[in-house]
Amino acid sequence: MIQSFSHKLISWYKSNKRDLPWRNTDDPYKIWISEIILQQTRVKFAIDYYNKFIEKFPTIESLSEAKEDDVLNSWQGLGYYSRARNIHHTSKILKEKYSSVFPNKYDEIISLKGIGRYTTGAILSFAFKKKIPVVDGNVFRLFSRLFFIDKFIDTASGQNYFYNVAEDLICEKNPDLFNQAIIEYGAMVCKPKNPTCTTCVFNHQCEAYKKNKVFELPLKKNSVRTTDRFLIFILGTKKNIFLKKKKDGIWKGLYTPPIHEAKSKKELNKIKENEELYILNNNVKVLKTSAVIHHKLTHQNLSIKFCYSDLDLDNQNEFVKVKLKNFDHFPVPRVIEKFLKNLYDEQKK
DNA sequence: AACTCGTGGTT
DNA sequence: TAACCAAGAGT
What we know:
Elements: H1 2-16, H2 28-38, H3 43-56, H4 60-64, H5 68-75, H6 82-98, H7 106-110, H8 117-126, H9 137-146, H10 156-169, H11 175-188, H12 207-210, E1 227-235, E2 240-245, E3 255-256, E4 259-262, H13 265-270, E5 276-279, E6 282-289, E7 293-296, E8 300-309, E9 320-323, H14 334-348
Parallel strand pairs: 1-8
Antiparallel strand pairs: 1-4, 2-3, 2-9, 5-6, 6-8, 7-8
Helix pairs in contact: 1-11, 2-3, 2-8, 9-11
The chain binds a DNA duplex (11 and 11 nucleotides) through residues 34-46, 77-83, 86, 113-119, 122, 134, 136-139, 154-156, 183-184, 186-187, 192-194, 221-222, 224-225, 249-252, 295-300, 333-334.
């Protein structure tokens, strides 16, 4: 049964797999970068970022010598920017401690910042062909349905259970192919919303399918709670923008204009032309405001208003004065990128 | 253990 | 259309 499972799976994989750029290499550096980019990110969206990132930073050394802002610039728009800060940090460790040779021991790899259990397994099996299981969101879903595992996929004990299942199933001869294949099967057949159960090669042995409970799995314990926030981005006059690198919270490491936070929708709506705001020990006069922009994050619903003002931060060294045409030299959040790009296009007309 | 960290596609 | 959630990891 176990043999037939992996054989069936790998043979399905060979004739149905997608041709993805990171599947054409054994370079642990490239495998690593691809896995980080793919965390919580759709494959289709990741491809372009991966190709450009590898082109710009082809080796551990080139990445370790880069400036963090340049790495973040390559990451702009991908989200979860700690991933970019962590690979940059880790590339320096790899250069200094490992002489730019990627380690191939489990304990060494998992101790690197930004690399957890899943990514360690992915690097060890895809690059070094070792028999280490990988359990990502696709595998949780596939296994939970196939074996009707009603354990939470977002608790440590639940995840351990799934890893044990993977340990039992992973095949001796081609652990790397097996791992690629279970992920691909979850992504292409055993999908969250529209799984193609009728043509699934495992449907006769799928416990959830037999019970007609495919859509009840996998189980999660924690649901996401969102909070509403109301932000005002303070711009100067139209010619110049002041940006500062964020030190914490959302968008840490990216650049934003000074941020004033309102406590309610009412307070945000109240801010318009000729209002005064107290920001950074300055009384600031609002000259003009944008419409409210709604920007949704995983845990936060942001309502954002851009305000032109008479704020002048020329002598504040934490801030960099940027001309509108040059803002793309700095990594900024998507919502700011879009606004400034629009503004620049308008001014060119 | 529960919470945080982005963005955009899909239903 | 609001909700879900994608090749997770850090704290």
